[in-house]
Specification:
By secondary structure, the chain is mainly alpha-helical. The protein has a single domain, classed as Winged helix-like DNA-binding domain superfamily/Winged helix DNA-binding domain (Arc Repressor Mutant, subunit A). It is 55% helix and 11% strand. The chain has seven helices and three strands, in the order H-H-H-H-E-H-H-E-E-H. Helix 4 crosses helix 7. The longest helix has 20 residues. It is globular and about 50 Å long. The N and C termini lie far apart (42 Å).
């Protein structure tokens, strides 16, 4: 890997260290999927506690079952969330953060905390209330 870092091609160097501004950087996929509204909210809930699907659904107002399921699959795929299925009847699945997910959630919590603290400074905060 060190030999690749010395190469003159700036795209090679950008991809090795993860330059999100580079068009072909794989970190853009993670950025796109792990920073959606629902992914951010899942990470925040799981930062506080392990949770079952139904707990997450109750904690995150407005999320559909389908969207929550897809979001959790994406987060697990990227190694941010751990899914543990217990072989019991009825089925029981627990979700928790991986160490990587906990690291990301800590940074996201700082951003969302800043947003909550400064919400009154945004002139149109209520104008498009979750229209997307």
């Amino acid at each position: 890997m060190p030999d690749l870092e010395k190469r003159g091609n700036p795209i090679d160097r950008a991809l090795l260290r993860g330059d999100v501004l580079a068009e072909l950087c794989p970190s853009r996929t993670i950025l796109r999927q792990a920073t959606t509204r629902w992914a951010v909210l899942c990470l925040l809930v799981l930062r506080r506690r392990e949770a079952r699907f139904s707990d997450l659904r109750r904690a995150i107002g407005g999320v559909s079952e389908r969207m929550l399921s897809r979001t959790l699959q994406d987060l697990a795929h990227h190694g941010l969330v751990r899914r543990v299925s217990h072989p019991v009847v009825p089925p029981h699945v627990d979700y928790s953060l991986t160490p990587l997910g906990a690291e990301m959630a800590e940074r996201i919590e700082a951003l969302t905390g800043w947003l909550e603290h400064n919400i009154n400074r945004f002139p149109n905060a209520d104008a498009g209330r979750d229209a997307a």
